[in-house]
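Worked example 3 (structure in, sequence out).
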C-alpha cells in the first residue's frame, strides 16, 4: 500500500503523496515542503482548487479517475485549500492527513475526521510534551500587545507568507486594524479573497502604503524578514520606535531576535493528534514527518497499532494490508 518513497500503491494506482517521484501526484496544500510536484513538468495533479490557485497551477493536468480506487479530498484545517486524501477500495479506507489542525482558524475551518482502516498521520509537533494554548487566547494576547505598542511605536508582525500571514491579517482586522502587508503576502491574500476570505489590508509599497508609513503603522511581513535588524532599519529610516513579533508554533523551542513571540500554530499538537485517532479509529497507523518516532511510541503505549513511517518505509508495506 505504501512504499519507501511516500507513495500510495493500490490496484494499479501509484500516487505520490506530497512529493514528485511519480507521474500522478497528490498535493495536500500549498506550502513549499509539500508541493514540489507543482514545480515539475509533466505531472498529473490531485489537489484542491484553492491549492492549485495558490501554486499557480490551475491549468495543470489532473489525475484521471480510477474504477478500482475512489479518491476524494476532505478539509485539513491547516490553511486555505489544505486537504486530506481519502482512498477507498474493496471495502477498505486509507486516509493521509497531510498537515492538519482540528481547531478552526480565522480563515479556515477545522479538519474533518472520518473512520478509516489505515491512517498516515503527519507528526510535526507530536512530542507528548507539546500542548498549544487555545488559538483564541493567543490571538487575544497578541492583539492586546499590538494595541499597547501601537500607541507609541510602529508594530511589525511576522508569519509565513502563505497561510500564517493571512491569519495575522484576519486577527488584526477583528480588532479594527488594517495592516500594511508585504507584496509577497499580498499575492496570497488576493487568492484568499477569490475564495471568499475577506482581508482588509494595504500593500506596503502602494501609494496609500507610502502615506501610511509617515505615521506609526502595524505591518505584516514574511517570517524570515522580521528581526532586530529590520526594526533598526525601519527606525533609522522613519525616525520612530519599532516593536517586532513573530507568530509560530515553535515559540517555546527556539530563540528569535524579536520583542515577542506568540505560539500561534496551524498544526495539530499531541492532544489533537490523539483526539483525531480516537475519532477515526484506524486499525493501522503510520506516523510521518517531524516527531514521528515519538508519536508512534506514544500510540503503541496506548494500545494502537502504530509505526514510524520513516523506519517502516525502508521496506515495502504492501504485505501488511
Amino acid at each position: 500500500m505504501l512504499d519507501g518513497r511516500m507513495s500510495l500503491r493500490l490496484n494499479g494506482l501509484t500516487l505520490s503523496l506530497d512529493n514528485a517521484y511519480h507521474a500522478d501526484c497528490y498535493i495536500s496544500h500549498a506550502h513549499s515542503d509539500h508541493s514540489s510536484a507543482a514545480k515539475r513538468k509533466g505531472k498529473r495533479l490531485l489537489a484542491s482548487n484553492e491549492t492549485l490557485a495558490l501554486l499557480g497551477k490551475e491549468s495543470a493536468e489532473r489525475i484521471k479517475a480510477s474504477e478500482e480506487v475512489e479518491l476524494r479530498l476532505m478539509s485539513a484545517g491547516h490553511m486555505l485549500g489544505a486537504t486530506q486524501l481519502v482512498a477507498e477500495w474493496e471495502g477498505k479506507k486509507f486516509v493521509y492527513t497531510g498537515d492538519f489542525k482540528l481547531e478552526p482558524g480565522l480563515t479556515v475551518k477545522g479538519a474533518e475526521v472520518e473512520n478509516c482502516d489505515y491512517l498516515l498521520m503527519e507528526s510535526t509537533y507530536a512530542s507528548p510534551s507539546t500542548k498549544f494554548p487555545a488559538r483564541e487566547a493567543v490571538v487575544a494576547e497578541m492583539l492586546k500587545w499590538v494595541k499597547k505598542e501601537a500607541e507609541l511605536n510602529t508594530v511589525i508582525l511576522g508569519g509565513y507568507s502563505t497561510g500564517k500571514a493571512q491569519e495575522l491579517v484576519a486577527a488584526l482586522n477583528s480588532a479594527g486594524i488594517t495592516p500594511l502587508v508585504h507584496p509577497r503576502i499580498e499575492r496570497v491574500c488576493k487568492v484568499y479573497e477569490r475564495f471568499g476570505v475577506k482581508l482588509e489590508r494595504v500593500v506596503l509599497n502602494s501609494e496609500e502604503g507610502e502615506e501610511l508609513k509617515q505615521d506609526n503603522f502595524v505591518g505584516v511581513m514574511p517570517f524570515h524578514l522580521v528581526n532586530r535588524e529590520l526594526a533598526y532599519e525601519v527606525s533609522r529610516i522613519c525616525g520612530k520606535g519599532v516593536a517586532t513579533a513573530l507568530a509560530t508554533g515553535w515559540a517555546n523551542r527556539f530563540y528569535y531576535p524579536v520583542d515577542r513571540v506568540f505560539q500561534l500554530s496551524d498544526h495539530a499538537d499531541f492532544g489533537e493528534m490523539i483526539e483525531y485517532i480516537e475519532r477515526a479509529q484506524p486499525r493501522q497507523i503510520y506516523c510521518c514527518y517531524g516527531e514521528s518516532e515519538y508519536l508512534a511510541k506514544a500510540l503503541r503505549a496506548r494500545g494502537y497499532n502504530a509505526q514510524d513511517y520513516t523506519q517502516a518505509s525502508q521496506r515495502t508495506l504492501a504485505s501488511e494490508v
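Notes: The chain has a mean pLDDT of 94. The chain has two domains: 7-130+267-320, 135-262.
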